[in-house]
Amino acid sequence: MKRLLKYAISFLVVVLLFPMTTNAQTIKRPKQKTKTEKTQKQNNQSPAKKRATNEFEGLTANQIAKIGLDYEFGGHGKTQDYTKAVKWYRKAAELGDDWAQWKMGECYKYGRGVAKDYYEAVKWYRKAAEQGDPWNQRTLGDCYYNGFGVTQDYYEAVKWYRKAANQGNEFGQISLAKCYYYGHGVTKNLDEAKSLLLKAIAQGSNDAKTYMRNWFGE
Predict the structure, then answer these.
(1) One domain for residues 192 and 211
(2) pLDDT in tens, 84-113
(3) Distance of alpha carbon 80 from alpha carbon 73, whole angstroms
(4) What is the number of domains present in the chain?
(5) Does some domain include residue 3?
(6) Chain-centre distance for alpha carbon 204
(7) Which helix (H) or strand (E) holds 100?
(8) CB-based burial, 144-180: b 16+ in 10 Å, e otherwise
(9) Whether residues 218 and 206 fall in one domain
């Protein structure tokens, strides 16, 4: 009995002096990279990757859009490449260039460099229209008039046609004249239709002259 008690006391002393280790592993936090290490990594990038990162640097949105145009039509020594055109148009459009936003809409409408997507096309037309660009206001009006990428809505079409027409856009004036002539989205009003056509004719629109002749015999 004394021997057993002596053994128990010895075991307790060992446990207290040398705690037992567990199988649990210590969680190590990932080592944070220093600013110097980050700089070295950037300096070690391949030349091609550096060019891809900096190719827009120092260029205005308009200049970027023009390079997109060169890629679209193969101008200024560029090989025609719709995919590259979209890349440059997209960058310019994201920077707020309304012409590039219209081009993005056209690329999605016709499937040039991207998969054809009417809803995406309308998104870009809308961005430019909301900036006050009359061409895109008229284009967005067409989308609503014809149900292109949106639910057909004559009232919404008239809203955008009117915005374009009020800025003197001849195509907006003609489109709004159609709405008044047929009573789409507005109360039918032949006098208003004729007045709008005359404004477009004053700008030299042959299309307006054709409508005037067909509708009013003038």
Answers:
(1) yes
(2) 999 999 999 999 999 999 999 999 999 999
(3) 5
(4) 2
(5) no
(6) 34
(7) helix 98-110
(8) bbeebbbeeebebbbebbbbbbeeebbbbbbbbbbbb
(9) yes
Torsion sign across C-alpha atoms 141, 147, 150, 156: positive
Neighbouring CB atoms inside 10 A of 203's CB total 12
Distant-in-sequence, close-in-space partners of 166: CB < 8 Å, separation ≥ 6: 172
Tokens encoding 214: 């067909």
Which amino acid is present at 102? W
Q: Nearest Cα to 211, choosing from 176, 169, 185, 162?
A: 176
pTM for the full predicted model: 0.74
Q: Are residues 167 and 178 in the same domain?
A: yes
- Per-residue pLDDT tens over the stretch 137-188: 999 999 999 999 999 999 999 999 999 999 999 999 999 999 999 999 999 9
CATH number of the domain residue 143 falls in: 1.25.40.10
Burial class (CB in 10 A: 0-12, 13-18, 19+), 118: middle
Tokens of 123: 């998104």
> Quick one: DSSP state of residue 58?
T
List the domain range (segments joined by +) for residue 184. 134-218
- Cα distances from 178 to residues 6, 21, 138, 209, in angstroms, run 110, 87, 13, 13
Q: Is 143 found in the same domain as 123?
A: no
